[in-house]
Amino acid sequence: MSARTNKPHEIVERALELSRADGCVVIADEHSTANLRWAGNALTTNGVTRGRSLTVVATVDGKEGTASGVVSRSAVTPDDLEPLVRAAEAAARGAGPAEDAQPLVTGVPEAPDFTDAPAETSSAVFADFAPALGEAFARARAGGRELYGFANHELVSTYLGTSTGLRLRHDQPTGTLELNAKSPDRTRSAWAGRSTRDFKDVDPGVLDAELAVRLGWAERRVDLPAGRYETLLPPTAVADLLIYQLWSASGRDAAEGRTVFSKPGGGTRVGEKLTDLPLTLRSDPNEPGLESAPFVVAHSSGGDQSVFDNGLPVGSTEWVSGGVLKNLTTTRHTAGLTGLPVATAGGNLILDGGQDRSLDDMVASTERGLLLTCLWYIREVDPATLLLTGLTRDGVYLVENGQVTGQVNNFRFNESPVDLLGRATEAGRTEKTLPREWSDWFTRAAMPALRVPDFNMSSVSQGV
Known about the structure:
- The protein has 2 domains: 8-214, 2-Layer Sandwich (PmbA/TldD fold), CATH 3.30.2290.10; 222-464, no CATH class.
- The chain is of the alpha+beta class.
- The chain is built from 9 helices and 20 strands.
- A hairpin with a 4-residue loop joins β4 and β5 (167-182).
- Helices cover 19% and strands 38% of the residues.
- The protein has helices at 8-18, 81-93, 129-142, 204-217, 235-247, 251-255, 332-338, 359-364, 417-423, and strands at residues 23-39, 42-62, 65-74, 146-162, 167-182, 189-196, 221-222, 227-233, 280-283, 317-321, 324-325, 349-352, 368-382, 387-400, 403-408, 410-415, 426-427, 431-433, 445-447, 450-461.
């Protein structure tokens, strides 16, 4: 093979040929992005980018065990390959035995499109969206509101090859739309967001109409003190909380007594009932509209991922099944340590099992409570209970006798998502949503709205 090749699958093959280690994993990621940004009802910027990154994992066997070395570089050219491979090998030889060492994965059929060119996005992805956005600007201007926001589309083609014969490929489209509507004096603000694979299923006009209603609600202001309130959490807020729960669901940490999923006296809480609602929290790489990589792609080891698991098939996993904790996240290594089954976190998260009721239906059946828009600045307070703190943002509304009667001040909250599931009294219809807090890292989610009778608003926040 020519050392001058520049196609991603050939880059992978060439790096594997250059390897002198006992084992080698090569991951080539081809990135392309397209974006639009706007402010004050007018487009401000747009752009398209391209990029490549390459990760080489070298494994070296020794008397005390197998060591690994990982080196990643961006903008890799053919001339960079041998120095990159040698650097990974040197890192492995200079490291001690890897705690997570396992035999490299074998026996996974080759992807039929492994040698195809990478998929790419372009400004054409906005062909229908951009004109609709212009129409939304005109309606907003006529309605006395200003629209701000951005649309971003990324397409990553991942090529994974190993010295054990794996040749895998996955194309991952990721699209996000975030739209803020503000009153001209900036005293009122409302937010809406959507995730999408191709911008064919998002309509900025629909979002603008939704935001116009919320700005109208905010014309009446009601100040409320901190306290516990019956609260309707929309799907985006539920997603932000449960994604953090998934990130905190380490089987090893639970078995070692360090998390909310640890059983007092030893072991884990797998098998315990977390909620009386018949809810199932799951990940599935084949979920329609939320498709994600069907195999492990690990650029480094740590937490609940291991470079030794690269290429391991990822299937559907239920984390909570019918209200009962069923699985915690594990690698092959940590599964062996804990006795739990191998369970990879995956690239999406779905909560279903609620009633076929919209958020509007839930508002209509609320005597008195709060309706949130989204959560912000979520941080962990106590891992033993998974107590989180954060802020509400862009609209908290008072509901009285089934009607929204005004906007109230923002709050700081203190809640545990595990505890919330146990206290929730109603779950609505599951729908695709964009987690606002984690949208830079996790976009593929489908959640219902939740009703919590005593959500803890711990203090008043002065944010808009």
